[in-house]
Amino acid sequence: MGSTEKIKIESLTYAYPFSDKNALENISFSIMPGECVGIIGRNGAGKSTLCLALTGLVPKFFKGRYSGKVLLDGEDVRQISYEKLVTKIGLVLQNPFSQITGARITVYEEVAFGLENLGIPRDEIKQRVEAVLKALDLWEKRDENPFELSGGQLQKLAIASVLVLQPEVLVLDEPTSQLDSGGTKEVFEIISQMKSQGITIVLVEHKYEMLVEYVDKIIFLQEGKMIAFDEAEKIFSLPEIDEYMVGEPIYTKLCKKLNLKNSRGYYPVKFSEAVGILREARCGSDR
Amino acid sequence: MDLIVKVENLWFSYKSGKFVLKNINVSFDGVSTAIVGQNGAAKTTFVKILKGLLKPTMGDVWINGVNTKETTVAQLAKVVGLVFQDPSEQIFKSKVIDEVMFGPLNIFRDKQYSYQMAIEALKLVGLDGKVNEHPYDLTLSERKLLCIASVLAMDPKVVIFDEPTIAQDRYHIKKIGELVLELEKNGKTVIAITHDMDFVFDYFKRTLVLHRGNLLVDGKTDEILQREDVLKAAGLDTPYIFKISSSVGTVISKLFPI
Ligand SMILES: Nc1ncnc2c1ncn2[C@@H]1O[C@H](COP(=O)(O)OP(=O)(O)OP(=O)(O)O)[C@@H](O)[C@H]1O
Ligand SMILES: Nc1ncnc2c1ncn2[C@@H]1O[C@H](COP(=O)(O)OP(=O)(O)O)[C@@H](O)[C@H]1O
Ligand SMILES: [Mg+2]
Ligand SMILES: [Mg+2]
């Protein structure tokens, strides 16, 4: 296996400048090509900082105290040139307002901006921008000014401007926090398409009910430390999970209260499985 | 209860000819109300009008009996507090405590009292350990909580939250929900915009559905969230807790009251 990991983090410890607290502490894990990995944790757990570290913004942009390594295809992110990095890894920031360059006047131009910088042919730019804007239901907004969009529309624009670059690894920090249910489904639909194209995905998300349907594994952070890196049902069945107060999918909570587990001995995390188990329990209790 | 907020025949457009709010008639009293609707439905626009930051293109808004056209944003601020969707629209001081004290200082003109109000508000959101930090060193979830504290410190009669649960973990979503209940109990008029239907179900008695600038329905949360036709027409989802009970059958409520 050794050299085939897409992402490999080795004992990463990081503190922001002037902070005596580690935002990340001794984090190590690997992600294989094409895997989709979720990150969960409480406010301030280090989720966003980990996203910044994966893309090299920590420590290139955010200085501070840094030790350990983040490797993309075996190469230290700190050593990868900017031009190469943008095609390798893309980050959708937690705050969409920070993502917009403002260098362009319309939604369309904002999305095309990154591709122009990469010197992509005009026809291809047109086709890629159009596809992305349509997938996110922003096509009708293409001639509008990004600063006149609603919060949710702006969040979609931030996602579009990264997706259009078609990076090999996609990192999304709470991409659906301001989206309605339709927008949230669109984003997850896109994530699942990307996954089927072999793109590696890392996703911070508090909407566990959606997250568990799409991820292969979950990284669980607490106060900068990695508590677990495992399948969702194992994470949400950890005996000490309640003490961390991260919560769980609503139906997992229900099954926990009723002490209903699946055949593998874990609390169900997916909707259909939880429904099946709850129905069975209901038949049992009716009898 | 008095109708502390009253909206009559409200129309609004940012650019001439294209109305984003169409003939809205609604009022608010002490019952906590959730506003739901798709992205771009004009929820934020609506609450910015209540706060007096945008003026109706046509129609009127009365706050405490005063028409917003005949008063100033500064006067309104004593009555209406708005937690912005985007914290960077709200935050402008370089220290947490200064940010939260700014509003109270303007209203109460008393440094000691304003400080007390600020500290209490920061305690309520769990940020009292960060009084001396720069707001831009806070995470997004903390900046959002800071904005909540800034509004609470002014003790306004009307408290409006524009998507308060953005970036919050489940623990803080529950905290914010409990805060809504507490404010309601203390006689405040609470209005909150959110996309989280389970949050609506858990903490708000009344729900308004905005759809493309129209007020589609207005009523009891329990009833509206059951009306799948209305929700579907407005592009909205039912709460997860309903989805699971309808898929499993009636027994959920029997085994596990919801
Ligand atoms: N400053 C502005 N200038 C012009 N148009 C605007 C401006 N702000 C918002 N709009 C437009 O008005 C409409 C309503 O926007 P608003 O921000 O009120 O929506 P919203 O319901 O709060 O959406 P979201 O759930 O995404 O926050 C949108 O179509 C938006 O593009
Ligand atoms: N720009 C910054 N400067 C200083 N400290 C920061 C900065 N951003 C985040 N932190 C701190 O780092 C820790 C982790 O934050 P973050 O990664 O944003 O958490 P999460 O995304 O899990 O909410 C927190 O203690 C936070 O206060
Ligand atoms: Mg974060
Ligand atoms: Mg809004």
Automatic annotation (TrEMBL), chain B:
Species: Fervidobacterium thailandense
Lineage summary: Bacteria, Thermotogati, Thermotogota, Thermotogae, Thermotogales
Stored Pfam families: ABC_tran
SUPFAM superfamilies noted in UniProt: P-loop containing nucleoside triphosphate hydrolases
Domain ABC transporter: from-to ranges: 5-237
Any one GO CC term of the record: ATP-binding cassette (ABC) transporter complex
Molecular functions per Gene Ontology: ATP binding; ATP hydrolysis activity; ATPase-coupled transmembrane transporter activity
The entry's keywords: ATP-binding, Nucleotide-binding, Transport
KW Transport (keyword) present: yes
Name this protein carries in UniProt: ABC transporter ATP-binding protein
